[in-house]
Design brief:
Chain lengths: 298, 298
């Protein structure tokens, strides 16, 4: 296993342990709600957003994650998970499988899936707003605001709404880009920002660069997703290959051609690496993660 | 119009103006999402929770609401509205009408209703986490945490999940009480707490009393709801009278009898008033609101 794979594994273990604890200690009068939350949360995700939080913090400080970094990593994964649970619902993308497993409304029922998603979103803000000794409340508040802005009606939710409103309709490249900037990009950029914010003053001057980096890899992530849907393998993807075309979804390859999309991906990758390279050794792991994002096979 | 009615009208106008501004200035790439949010948010609600925030602050300070009070009032109404939008969904309570108007998934569509609810929840936390000059960030963070705890898997969402899991099943009085303590009680208590927290140090010593008061009126509110469903008038209620019995929902009158439920309501009212009476003139409006809650006809 190479260094990045090891590191991702470590981060994943840490985040999953925290997520697991968070749900099991939460205590609810309705156990089925917790079971559904658990199903939506602990389903073998790549935990890419938490990794971005960790490695962005590392770039800023050269240090291991602090308590704020860890909270933010857990919170952002709660938001990401809730969005997947809701996106899979029959009224939305109507997906039965996610990472090879039955989706929440299939494994449980539709009402449980809606409520589990609602509770997971709330849990993100609850977890990040718990008082933490030794860190400025103003910083924690700023992190909360960053997460909320990225997740809501100007961010992730808007992107999903736009996507649903345009199924089967042609999009321009600008529209496609604006949609993905909201739908997946906002939360990816927020992950990078949250890592930098958790670094306190060490992150302040790096925020503009890291924000730009986040926007670039958010877009790159989506183009790679589109390419995988054409070139990937159903078993590796954990979802049917070719589903974008089957659902007549607008994609980068459809608008730019396969070679054009590949070239754009490379361009975004190069620009992102260009930004990170100015930060010396502390950026090495984030650089490795950036390579991974554009070369991943699922 | 009596003093309380005037006051409630004033608060309602203020909150609705803020809610209106919040949505119209938010800017989204998908206008339909905002329209659905607006439909769910600005639909003639009584704005009882914001009034509790305002009047609890007034009890603590004798002053007009400050910026924190106003933020909290708007945030809690966003949470309440999102929960109604989701509760009305076909997979949940499947209601076509709310306050005499078509519910969000009827007026728009199911996906829009799910997403509008998601965005309204997020907006509550976004609005309350925006930096406010002149107020301690630690206080704002504590208010956020209070709101999140009341709304999630140990509060409101848990109550709704428990309710759905027990449709048509008999409940004990303890179970019914635990369900309502989560489903409606948690957010009502949070409203009272948020008002006191927004008063800063003036609210600190009053928090335990006000929490207890919130628990009492939360329960009283629910019993009155159950009684109205039996004794109320469909036109005034804005929803079909008798729908609890038709859906075989467990209610206080079903468990305690009509007279028993009325007696319990009176008891809760008296205990709540007993708490408030120790606070002098500044409690007068909250006392009036308490009378209103147990005597309202819709």
């Amino acid at each position: 296993m190479n260094r990045l794979a090891q590191l991702l594994q470590q981060h994943r273990n840490q985040v999953e342990q925290q997520l697991d604890q968070l749900i099991s200690t939460a205590g609810s009068i309705e156990p089925r709600l917790q079971q559904t939350m658990r199903h939506g949360l602990l389903n073998g995700g790549k935990r890419l957003r938490p990794a971005l939080v960790y490695l962005s913090h590392q770039l800023c400080t050269g240090q291991l994650p602090n308590e704020l970094t860890k909270r933010a990593a857990v919170a952002i994964e709660c938001i990401h998970s809730y969005s997947l649970v809701h996106d899979d619902l029959p009224a939305m993308d109507d997906d039965d499988l996610r990472r090879g497993q039955p989706t929440c409304h299939i494994a449980f029922d539709e009402a449980s899936a809606i409520l589990a998603g609602d509770a997971l979103q709330c849990l993100a803000f609850e977890h990040l707003s718990e008082p933490i000794n030794g860190y400025p409340a103003a910083l924690q508040l700023r992190m909360l605001n960053t997460l909320a802005r990225a997740s809501g009606e100007r961010g992730m939710v808007a992107g999903q709404a736009f996507d649903l409103a345009h199924v089967g309709k042609p999009l321009t490249l600008e529209q496609l880009q604006a949609m993905h900037a909201c739908k997946t990009g906002a939360l990816i950029t927020a992950a990078v920002e949250l890592g930098a914010l958790s670094a306190g003053t060490a992150g302040d001057d790096k925020l503009p660069d890291l924000r730009r980096y986040g926007d670039l890899i958010g877009l790159a992530f989506q183009i790679q997703d589109d390419l995988l849907d054409i070139e990937g393998d159903t078993a590796t993807l954990g979802k049917p290959q070719g589903s974008d075309a089957a659902q007549n979804k607008p994609t980068y390859p459809a608008l730019l051609g396969l070679d054009g999309a590949r070239a754009r991906l490379q361009q975004l990758h190069d620009e992102a690496i260009g930004i990170l390279s100015t930060y010396g050794d502390d950026a090495d792991d984030l650089i490795a993660l950036t390579h991974y994002i554009v070369n991943r096979d699922h």
